[in-house]
Each structure stands twice: as structure tokens, then as C-alpha cells.
Amino acid sequence: MGNMGFPVRRIAAVPVGLLLAGVLVAQAPPPPPEPAPGTRQREIPGGTIVVAPTTRTITSEPAAVTTAEAAPQPLGYESDLYCFGYLGPAHESFPAQVVSAESLAEQIDYFTGDLLYVDAGHNRGLKVGDEFWLVTPEQTVVHPTTGRDFGRFYQYRGRAVLESLQGRSASVRITSSCTDVPLGSYLKPFEPIPIPLARKTAPAVAGDPPSGKVRGSIIYTRDGVVALGADHTILVDLGAAHGVEPGDFLTIYRYALPTSEARPVGGYWVNAPTPQDVEVPRTYLGEVGILAVGDRWAIGRVSDSYRLIKVGDEVELK
Q1: Among candidates 234, 251, 246, which has minimal Cα distance to 299?
Q2: Are strands 262-265 and 186-189 parallel, antiparallel or unpaired?
Q3: pLDDT given at position 267
Q4: Nearest to residue 237, comparing CAs of 138, 135, 313?
Q5: Which residue of 46, 71, 179, 246 has the smallest Cβ count within 10 Å?
Q6: Are residues 213 and 185 in the same domain?
Q7: 55 within some domain
Q8: Residue 18 belongs to what H/E stretch?
């Protein structure tokens, strides 16, 4: 039949292979990303590439830790020295003495802020602004073992500064009082006393041998205190002449014997010395840190106490 007048549409023949290839390309997954520099690659079954990140092991030494216990610590407080005293001669001389006070009609003892009158002025070289200890002579210290006179104890009552002066008199103001300041107290030129720093070591315990260093005794406690423990301030009969310095520690001990008898020495009852022919282990009582030293004496603060401590107990340099 002839052409009926319908339009003729021509279809180009495309090979089947090319069509299939195009479909596969369109459905293929995108290529994996390029690995970062320094990474490692590995293949797993199926052909997929897995990127394994590079790992590094970092080692470092632990930083040294400084604790408060390892650092040097003050062995006491200002009051342990400034409100204690010292050993001196039986009749020490002083530049001035308190003879009266501004509030004499109302008071018999004086404290911080009170104005005192003293019996020296220009005639003894005093100057406005001078600072002084206020001291009182106390008892004679008798050695508990030998009974020897060890000197007189002078107690620090406080401090004062000179405010005004005349030819033979002056006025001083109490700037700090440890206790009451009575009329008759003496003025002693003030010199600061530093509190020593030291590292504490383990104290001696039962069975520890002696250190073999210098030994002495507790010879005095202020106010007649007979039962001593931690934080009490004491005097011992070891000083600069024996190689003892501020910051040293002394071990406190005694030889406990059932036959020991207490006897009065000075103002205390102390144990009799250990007989030479008897030997028993030491009973350790505690430790004392040295705050200040004289020639043959030292001020110490009991830092540790395990048992009752008394005047006459022995000490040994650590």
C-alpha cells in the first residue's frame, strides 16, 4: 500500500553493549578519597580500601611533685621566742627600768598600748624610736642532774618603743605584751630573732640505736610546768659550744627503771640519774626542734611527744 500521509519517525540503532556500559558507569560508586599523608592502607576481601590512621606512642617522665611536707617548715612561731626568755647571769645590767606609768592610779599591771615611765633618758644615750624588750628576772635555773647553778632565767614580758625623753627620764609605749608588765620591769635593746626553717625526719622509735652524737638534758620549763607535751617551749643544756644550731632536732628519751626515785631539784621533781652498772633500752618520748641557742643552752619547741615528758629527761642530737 502506498504512504497514507502519516509522518515517518526514524530511530537510530544503538548497540546494546554501549547501553549496558553506560548504565554500569552511572551506578558505580565514587572512587575512595585520597588518603592523608602519613597514613597506611590495606585491602579487605571485596576490594574495598580501608584507610588506617597512623598511631604514635608518646612516653613522658612524670613531673616531680613537691609537697608541703617535703619543703622546709618553720619550727615554731614568733610567740615561742618573743614570749619566752633566755638564760643570763645572776645580776644582768640593763639601760633602764620601769618606775611609773601614765595610768598608775588605775592599774598595777600594764598591757599593749599603755604608757610607761623609765628612769633613763639622754644621760644613757636613749633615742626616740628605740625599741626594747620588757623583761623581768625570774628564778635561778639549777641543772636537774648535777645540781649546778646554770644561770638566771629572764622572761620576755613584751616589747615597747620610746616615744619621748628628757635628761634622765623617758616615756615608752607598750607595742606588744605577752602577759602583764609590772612596775620594775627592765628595758633590754630589742634584736629580732628569726624562726628557723627545717625539714623534719622520721622520729626515733623503740629499738632504734643512739645516734652517737652529743647528749644533754631538759633543764627548765617556764611557769613551773611539770607535764610536758607537744608545743611546749623548753630549755636544754646544749648550745653553740656543743655544735647545736637553730634548726636542729633532738631526740627526747629516758631509761625507765622500776627503782628510779624522784627527787626535788630546784623547782622540780626529777628522776634520779641512771646507775652506771644498769643498762636497759631507751624509752623514746618525743622530739624537740631548736629555735635559738646560747653558748651552753638552747631554746626548743617540742614537736612530737609519745609519752609524758619532764624536766630531767635526756636529749640527743639527731
Answers
A1: 234
A2: unpaired
A3: 58
A4: 313
A5: 46
A6: no
A7: no
A8: helix 16-27
The boundaries of the domain holding residue 108 are 74-189
The beta strands (E) that lie in 122-232 are given as 131-142, 149-165, 170-177, 181-182, 186-189, 197-198, 215-221
Tell me the per-residue pLDDT of 121-154, one tens digit each, with 9 for 90 and over: 999 999 999 999 999 999 999 998 888 898 999 9
Contacts of 133 (CB under 8 A, 6+ apart): 156, 158, 159, 187, 188, 189, 190
Question: Distance between CA 181 and CA 78 in Å, rounded?
Answer: 19
Radius of gyration of the chain (CA): 44
CATH code at 238?
Answer: 2.40.33
Q: Is residue 32 part of a domain?
A: no
Joined together, the cell numbers standing for residue 47 give 576490594
Measure Cα distances from 157 to 150, 179, 290 in Å: 22, 6, 21
pLDDT digits (tens, 9 = 90+) for 61-76: 555 555 555 689 999 9
Q: How many CA atoms lie within 13 A of 128 on its CB side?
A: 5
Residue 147 lies in a domain: yes
Considering the domain architecture, whether residues 215 and 297 belong to the same structural domain is answered as: yes
Write out the DSSP string of 45-73: TTS-EEEEPP------PPPPP--TTTS-E
Exposed, middle or buried: residue 80 (CB in 10 Å: 0-12, 13-18, 19+)?
A: buried
Residue 196 has pLDDT above 90, yes or no: yes
The Cα–Cα gap between 131 and 129 comes to 6
CA distance 159 to 161: 7
Span of 2-16, 60-74, 295-309 with lowest mean pLDDT:
2-16
Please give the single-letter amino acid code of residue 136: T
DSSP 37: T
Torsion of CA 148, 151, 156, 159, to 10 degrees: -170
**Measured between alpha carbons, how far is residue 99 from residues 137, 141, 166 in Å?**
16, 27, 15
Residue 194 corresponds to which amino acid?
Answer: P
Phi and psi torsions of 160, nearest 5°: -145, 155
